Amino acid sequence: MAVATWRTLGSLQWGGGVVLALWPDREHLGAISDNRRTRGLCVIPDDDQEAAPWATATKAVCLGAEAAPAAEPAGTGRLARLDPVVVQGLLTLTMLVNHGNNLAGTADHRDAVAVLLTLHDGGHALPADQVYEWALVNGWPSRGADRLTELAGKIATGTRPRLKGPWPLRDGILETWRSEASQNAR
């Protein structure tokens, strides 16, 4: 059995197994959850809001006599309130980017900025927490979901990140997303 704190985790020689994470923040919970060596994960959260997106994405089971209500299944609750046009844009982005580099690559970052700016300029809200949870539920690694959330938060507050390279989206993409969202609502 290996024991580590957040400070000593990097120096730990650990071959993998089950992890008991006590009071992890969102960043640490994502790092542990994304680690291929993690075979099982028991989380004792300090703040349920920090663990809620992870719990939803992984369909975590709450244990104990006073367990919080089970995580809402995908497509219900907060995720259901995410604008369907935003969902279509995020689906497009999910297909465009290389998830292995977590939006750190120039082209992936450019694509994310273009999708989010298109949605924002079209009058669609980008609630950062819902975007983060959607990304996790839809297979994004936690670091990529974090970077996407940071961009969404900046754009929602009026910051316009600069694009490096040509505009990657075709003309009329917002209308396509709106049409797809409308068709999916039927």
Report what the structure shows.
By secondary structure, this protein is mainly α. The protein has two domains: 63 residues, no CATH class; 108 residues, AhpD-like, CATH 1.20.1290. Helix content is 49%, strand content 7%. The protein has a two-stranded parallel sheet. Helix 2 packs parallel to helix 6 and helix 6 packs antiparallel against helix 7. About 5% of the residues have low confidence.
Percent of residues in beta strands: 5-15%
Strand order of the largest sheet: 1-2
Helicity level: 40-55%
Provide the succession of SSEs: EHEHHHHHHH
In CATH terms, what is the architecture of the largest domain? Up-down Bundle
CATH topology of the largest domain: AhpD-like
What's the number of structural domains? 2
The computed structural class is mainly alpha
Runs with pLDDT <50, length 5+?
Answer: 68-76
Question: What's the total helix number?
Answer: 8
